[in-house]
Amino acid sequence: MQNVLQYLPQLLGAAFKYTIPIAVISFVIGIVIALITALIRISNKRGVMLVVKAIFRFYVWIFRTTPLLVQLFIVYFGLPYLKIAGIAPDGIKLVPFTAGILTFSLNTGAYCSETIRAAIIAIPKGQWEAASTLGMTRRQALQRIILPQALRTSVPPLANSFISLVKDTSLAASITIIELFEVSQQIAAANFQPLLMYSLVALIYAVFCTVLTFIQGYLEKITSRYTIA
After folding, report:
1. In CATH, what number is assigned to the domain containing residue 6?
2. What is the pLDDT of residue 229?
């Protein structure tokens, strides 16, 4: 018990300094990316928009079909070798924290965009038609009628994505970010108690995710009040 109390401040310090900020910042940016991606992919415009839609479709495909760890390695270890004349002649070099935020944000955006897109598509076409009858443009109907309903029904899966992201931040240790898991590895290497340290880290993640699960349930109760049966 004394060993646990001895190392707990270090682990929690790393969690609140890196793990939680990385998860929160990445999720917020990821949601913005997801919303933009979903709206572009459901657009019915032609011409240049078809090319844009193809680019975003490729973005979603590549991030959903490759491991997150590989993505982190490409961004942090690979981009420095991508030399672009006039823009980045010495390669694109990012500090670990920035590389982590960028990768987690893009990964989250790809997955959450499908959640939001599916929620928008699930809205009955009759609501689009009713909005058109009232004289609303497609954009007005989307802003005032469709998106509020879609985002409300997206709360459970998006909350699940955030909880998964909190756990996935442990991969940030692979690009030298001194977050919760990396600190536990350093301590385990020094005290030769890997079972204790990794079990303690697992417990901390479990507590964080349990709290988030309760918050998710609360948000679902609030949003369900406005759901039409």
Report:
1. 1.10.3720.10
2. 45
> Exposed/middle/buried for 129, CB within 10 Å: 0-12, 13-18, 19+?
exposed
Low-confidence ranges of the chain (pLDDT < 70): 1-3, 225-229
| HSE-up (13 A, CA, CB side) for residue 42 | 21
User: Is 229 within the bounds of a domain?
Assistant: no
pLDDT of residue 1: 57
Is 129 a member of any domain? Answer: yes
Nearest C-alpha neighbor of 14 from the set 226, 217, 140, 186: 186
Asked if 27 contacts 166 with a C-beta cutoff of 8 angstroms, the reply is: no
Domain containing residue 189: 2-224
pLDDT digits (tens, 9 = 90+) for 71-83: 999 999 999 999 8
Query: What's the domain count of the chain?
Result: 1
Which residues have C-beta within 8 Å of that of residue 57, sequence separation ≥ 6? Answer: 41
Three-state SS sequence of the chain? CHHHHHHHHHHHHHHHHHHHHHHHHHHHHHHHHHHHHHHHHCCCCCCHHHHHHHHHHHHHHHHHCCCHHHHHHHHHHHHHHCCECCCECCCCCCCHHHHHHHHHHHHHHHHHHHHHHHHHHHCCHHHHHHHHHCCCCHHHHHHHHHHHHHHHHCHHHHHHHHHHHHHHHHHHHHHCCCCHHHHHHHHHHHHCCHHHHHHHHHHHHHHHHHHHHHHHHHHHHHHHCCCCC
Burial classification of residue 34, based on how many CB atoms lie within 10 Å of its CB (0-12 exposed, 13-18 middle, 19 or more buried)? buried
